[in-house]
Each structure stands twice: as structure tokens, then as C-alpha cells.
Amino acid sequence: MRGTRLWMALALLLALATVFFAACGDDDDESAGSGDATTATEESGATGQDFQTAEEGVLTVGTDAPYPPFEIGSPGRSNFSGYDVEVIEAIADELGLEVKWVDTGFNTIFRDTANGQFDTAAAASDIDARREKVVDFTDPYYQSATALVVTEDSDIQSIEDLSGKIVGVQDGTSQQEYAEDETDAAEVRGFPEGPNAIAALNTGQVDAVLTDLATGSVAVQETEGIQIVQEIPTDVFFGFAVAPDNDGLREAMNGALRTLKENGTINELYEKYFGTSAPQEVLEGTNELLTDD
To answer: Residue 275: which residues within 8 A CB-CB, separation 6 or more?
Structure first.
């Protein structure tokens, strides 16, 4: 009888243990399930920010190339490079994503980003209130200045000399807006790409070109017979555009940008492409601070 009771006690203990471990197994399964839902975030840069991209594991980036030194060459070619390109590639690396570049027109790039054709747009894009009616922007990664580019034999030496002249700009840029609002040019002629405006200057179709200082500097180095006669400081900063309903991706990109600023990557890329250190306004600035101003 004592043996039977002992066997029954052991059987009861075994049953209870089975139920206990089964329950633990259920908890583990649930944890694994929730882990699967956040694995992409945890493995994509440890930003702690949930985000979504149109294609799993891929950051689809709209751009408008070429626009050196920000976009050099064309997407899909092995030598496609530039400041924007390297910053985006570094952000994607922090987030554990591959990058797919899509070349498009600058005039439609923000609308297409808002509509979800791209996860983000990297096209030397100014952060401004007008564009933020369509898209949101990340924190800044570059501070812009404007260059007045003319031929070496031109009598134009400053913005004041543009009265009655034809000024070339890239369509949709802050330089176009500046030329229309701040000069007395007889005509502000837009071109689909920045290099097109420089080519028009060389062939006499325009009297001067307003462009980003870094872009103008590259054009002067690569094109004979043109020069920069005036540099115009601005409070313009570049950011990467993101659809307004994709706060998670924007904040994940901001987290990656903060890392790149803190570990010296942004400063290294500034030195590489612009020959100078990144300004504190870029290293410490946020989109909120810029738009609040």
C-alpha cells in the first residue's frame, strides 16, 4: 500500500511538472513571436525605434542625379557616389538596411516621397516650410550657401549686377526662389539639372547661374572659363525627406544621423567632399530647432 501511494504521489508530481513546463514553453513561444515582430528594429541599428520601409530590409531612396558633389554619376552604376550617397549608405548601414537608388526629377521628388514611391529622398534638399507641407524632413546633415557663377569675361560681379540679366537655376531649388524674390533679373530660367544651367552659361544662353556653393565649386574645377564671383551665406540646411505618416522611419534615420555625427563620420565626409569641418549648426542642429526659428 505504501508503494502504491508513493507511485501515485510521484505520478502527481510528474503531471504538475509537465503542466508547469508546458506553460513556460507557451510563454517562450509568445516571446519569440513578439521578438520576430521587432527583430528588424533590433538588428537595424539598435535605435529602439520601430519603423517601416516599403520593401523589407531595403531603404528605397529617390534622388536627382547628377548634382555633384552630392550625387556624382548615376544610380545603378558602380561609380555612383557623392556626399548624399555616402551619408545615406551610412544611415542604412546603421539601420541594417540595403539601399536601392531610384533616379527621378527634382520637381516631383517630394510628392513621390509623400505618396510612398520612395522611403526617403536624398537630393540636396533644403528644409523649408513650403516643402514641409508635403513631406517631413530629418535633422540636418549639411549647411548650404549660394554661389553666383559667371564666365571669366563677365562684367557681373555681384547680385546687384543681375538687373536686366538672364539667370540660370535648377528648377525647384532655393536658388530659383532667391533669384525670383531677391534679384532684378529680367528672366530666371530654370533647368531640370544643375549641370544643365552651367552648360547654358558656357554657351551664352544665360548671363549667370545661382547654385549651391559646393556644386558651383565643383563646376568651376571641371569647367574652363567660369568663376564664382560671390558667395552668399544662408541659413539653409539640407535634410532627407520622408513621408509625413512615417514618423518611425524619420526618427530611426535621425537616431542613425546622431550616431554618425557623434562618431565623426559626418565630419570625415565634410572634409572629403567640402574640404572643411562640419559646422556646429549641422552637428548639433535638429529639424525642430530649425523650423522653430
So the answer is: none
Candidates 46, 82, 75; CA nearest to 61 is 75
Domain spans, the chain? 58-141+239-292, 144-236
Q: Count Cβ atoms below 10 Å from residue 255 Cβ, excluding itself.
A: 20
Per-residue pLDDT tens for 1-50?
333 333 334 344 444 444 333 344 333 333 333 333 233 343 444 455 68
- 167, three cell numbers: 539667370
Fold matches, 58-141+239-292 and 144-236: yes
Nearest to 132 by CA among 17, 291, 293, 13: 291
pTM: 0.75
pLDDT for the residue 128 = 87
The CATH code of the domain at 144-236 is 3.40.190.10
Q: What is the pLDDT of residues 168-225, one digit of tens each?
A: 999 888 899 999 999 999 999 999 888 899 999 999 999 999 999 999 999 999 999 9
> Rounded mean pLDDT of 267-287?
93
CA angle 84/89/94 to nearest 5° reads: 125
58-141+239-292 placed in CATH 3.40.190.10:
yes
Cell digits of residue 237: 540646411
The residue count for the chain? 293
Q: What is the largest CA-CA distance in the chain?
A: 118
